[in-house]
Amino acid sequence: YVILKCDEWSIHFRDFRQPLWQMQQFNLWGHICAAEVTPDSLDSIRTPWVEIGEPYEPNRFRVQRLLSPLKFYHDINSDIDSFLISYGPAKTIVLARQYN
């Protein structure tokens, strides 16, 4: 079961008074489950060495990795008191600069 509560979440760009994204009293709750298919053959199972840094001992582990996709099943509800998105020609240029 997952519960997420957030009083305010906003994204601001420098030199803009109005936020790009603003949520107030955001609540998310529900069930979520991750599942993957057990492979029929051992060819799709890898066990690589994973090294992690200090201060963990031992700092080298073998991790079993599957090539089958990880799927998420969910039944999630949400409630938002206020949701504001601002968009315009000036912000489009700023967004384009961020992604290029």
UniProtKB/TrEMBL annotation:
It holds the Pfam family Hobbit. InterPro entries: Hobbit (IPR045167). It comes from the Eukaryota. This is Uncharacterized protein.
